[in-house]
């Protein structure tokens, strides 16, 4: 009874391998791009990877996108060719204003709307007040230097966490802050409490590129954690799972928030 089964199983596996090899040139790297396409494409037409711009992309195409967003008033930062959280937020805001599916991915419909003369300009102010948690006020405006700090922080997203980590192989929470500012040519203290005490200038509310500080996140006195504020009520920091973008407005962070500093 078992003898006929084995040849059949071998045949199925063999067929699967052959099918996979045969299809590889046809699908390749476009599979993940196609999975994101429907929300921006609005039809059954498949979109190739080159037609989509999303988080992590870099280069002239991203710079052109940022310039177009800026011309319509949706992007007020340095055109750096890096598709990070700020660019994604700007794309999402534009999509919302144009009645497009909002996903923060610049696909054919979004690009077409941007390049058309009928695209509406943003009427929102550069300033935004957040009332979540402890009601810390934040500003979404930022200078070119601030944008460089954000870009440096974005470059580190995805690096794993390791206690005592100070290199791109792995970073701890203060190691992330050190590495971010090292990229823009600035030296800061090794610890959160040291940075809080000795580096930069205290500000009443965080702006893009400022360092936001928290206490009581570990069993230690004073500042115990910090992150880079990137606008849109978000920050980049090194959490337990690695360098990531987090919601600064969450109750947890607001309840532990002690202030912000501008380090120029």
From TrEMBL:
Which Pfam families did the record assign? Answer: NLPC_P60, PG_binding_1
As one GO molecular function, the record gives: cysteine-type peptidase activity
The organism sits in which domain of life? Bacteria
Where is region (Disordered) located? 112-140
Q: Name one GO biological process term.
A: proteolysis
InterPro entries on file: NLP_P60_dom (IPR000064), Papain-like_cys_pep_sf (IPR038765), Peptidase_C40 (IPR051202), Peptidoglycan-bd-like (IPR002477), PGBD-like_sf (IPR036365), PGBDSf (IPR036366)
Task: Report keywords, A-Z.
Answer: Hydrolase, Protease, Thiol protease
Q: Does the keyword NAD apply?
A: no
Q: Which residues form the NlpC/P60 domain?
A: 143-264
Protein family according to the UniProt entry:
Belongs to the peptidase C40 family.
- Protein name per the record: Cell wall-associated hydrolase, NlpC family
Species of origin: Salimicrobium flavidum
């Amino acid at each position: 009874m078992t003898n006929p089964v084995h040849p059949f199983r071998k045949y199925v596996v063999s067929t699967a391998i052959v099918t996979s090899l045969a299809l590889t040139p046809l699908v390749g790297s476009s599979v993940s791009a196609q999975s994101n396409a429907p929300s921006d494409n609005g039809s059954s037409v498949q979109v190739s990877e080159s037609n989509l711009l999303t988080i992590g992309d870099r280069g002239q195409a991203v710079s052109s996108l940022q310039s177009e967003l800026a011309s319509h008033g949706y992007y007020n930062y340095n055109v750096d060719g890096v598709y990070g959280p700020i660019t994604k937020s700007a794309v999402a805001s534009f999509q919302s204003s144009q009645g497009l599916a909002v996903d923060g991915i610049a696909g054919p419909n979004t690009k077409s709307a941007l390049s058309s003369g009928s695209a509406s300009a943003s009427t929102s102010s550069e300033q935004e007040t957040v009332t979540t948690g402890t009601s810390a006020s934040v500003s979404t405006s930022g200078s070119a230097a601030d944008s460089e700090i954000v870009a440096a922080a974005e470059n580190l997203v995805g690096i794993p966490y390791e206690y005592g980590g100070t290199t791109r192989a792995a970073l701890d929470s203060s190691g992330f802050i050190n590495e971010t500012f090292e990229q823009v040519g600035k030296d800061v203290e090794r610890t959160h409490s040291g940075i809080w005490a000795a580096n930069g200038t205290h500000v009443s509310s965080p702006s893009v590129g400022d360092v936001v500080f928290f206490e009581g996140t570990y069993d230690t006195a004073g500042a115990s954690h910090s992150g880079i504020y990137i606008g849109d009520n978000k920050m980049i920091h090194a959490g337990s799972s690695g360098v990531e973008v987090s919601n600064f407005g969450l109750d947890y962070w607001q309840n532990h928030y002690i202030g912000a500093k501008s380090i120029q």
